[in-house]
Specification:
Number of strands: 4
Protein name: Protease HtpX homolog
Number of domains: 1
Strand content: 5-15%
Distance between the termini: 28 Å
Domain Peptidase M48: 77-290
Shape: elongated
Family: Belongs to the peptidase M48B family.
Low-confidence stretches: none
Radius of gyration: 21 Å
Mean pLDDT: 80
Organism: Streptomyces phaeofaciens
Active site: 141
Number of helices: 11
Structural class: alpha+beta
Order of helices and strands: HHHEHEEEHHHHHHH
């Protein structure tokens, strides 16, 4: 079912290209592991198991990691009312509504499709935003679900997770330390580590590039759906400013799910570090919303219709 969120052809193209490139990388990665480990059954079972778990249970994993809980209408009537209104406007199924007891002002959406989606906000966000700003943030998150980019990011991040797990396993189990190993075993372990590191680095950069664009696409879709880009801009400014005052320990807890958040847990990255950021800079997002506001203002002037 097609929602009323404005479609974004560039986002669709970027998602397709990213998944295609990651698919090629994925095939090469699995093939390399099979050759190196000489056990295709083990590799395929482990890879398929992790991919299945990440795809089918991504919403539960994210809620558990961020201490989120599903809330009913009687618990948060105003929050449910905003979600209901947006679902009616966008003509899409209502996602599960959740709240995380965190002071960090943020929100995220997850789930494999619009019929199995979760939208979660923190209590810190609810305390700081007014109704119009909250609507803008929730429209932003729901557009991720409508565009299906939240599912694409979940699948795309799978390869990096696998590679990262292999690298961590190698370090934590001290594969290169203690005991006697023949040269062939050491060479295989070194090759597995090298392939895993390379795959992690490539998938990391591809996912970051897609993530930055999808945030701009979600801002644009939310602003056009609600017709109030200024409210979303105000929410962005408030949240970005207040995150700087949240204890670093709390922010680092949330950093693992940065790509899914409304704004990055640790703020915007300076200089070249922006290449590795999951989000565009606040200035980019506000500039885009400013242009949309001007466009909507032009369209509303007498004599501009039709």
């Amino acid at each position: 079912m097609q929602s009323r969120f404005r479609s974004d052809r560039q986002l669709t193209v970027r998602m397709t290209v990213t998944l295609f490139l990651l698919g090629l990388l994925y095939v090469a990665f699995v093939a390399a592991l099979i050759v190196l480990l000489k056990s295709w059954v083990l590799v395929v079972v482990v890879v398929a198991g992790v991919l299945g778990a990440q795809y089918w249970f991504s919403d539960r994993i994210a809620l558990f990691a961020m201490h989120g809980r599903v809330v009913e209408r009687e618990d948060y009537p105003e929050l449910h009312a905003v979600v209901d209104r947006l679902c009616a406007i966008a003509d899409m199924p209502k996602p599960v509504v959740a709240v995380s007891e965190m002071d960090m002002p943020n929100a995220f959406a997850t789930g494999r499709n619009p019929d199995n989606a979760v939208v979660c906000v923190t209590t810190g966000l609810l305390r700081r935003l007014d109704a119009a700003e909250l609507e803008g943030v929730l429209a932003h998150e729901m557009s991720h679900v409508a565009h299906k980019d939240v599912a694409v990011i979940t699948i795309a991040s799978f390869l990096g997770v696998i590679a990262g797990l292999i690298v961590r396993f190698a370090f934590y189990s001290q594969l290169f330390g203690g005991g006697r190993r023949d040269q062939n075993t050491a060479a295989v372990l070194a090759a597995v580590m090298a392939v895993s590191v390379a795959v992690y680095a490539i998938s990391f950069l591809l996912i970051r590039a897609l993530s930055r664009y999808r945030e701009l696409a979600a801002d644009r879709a939310a602003a056009l759906l609600t017709g109030r880009p200024s409210a979303l801009a105000s929410a962005l400014t408030k949240v970005s400013g207040d995150i700087a005052r949240i204890p670093t320990k709390d922010l680092r807890t949330a950093q693992a799910f940065n790509a899914f958040y409304f704004t990055p847990a640790l703020g915007s990255e300076p200089g070249l570090a922006r290449l590795f950021s999951t989000h565009p800079s606040l200035e980019q997002r506000l500039d885009q919303l400013g242009r949309i506001s001007a466009e909507l203002g032009e369209a509303a002037r007498p004599g501009k219709a039709g």
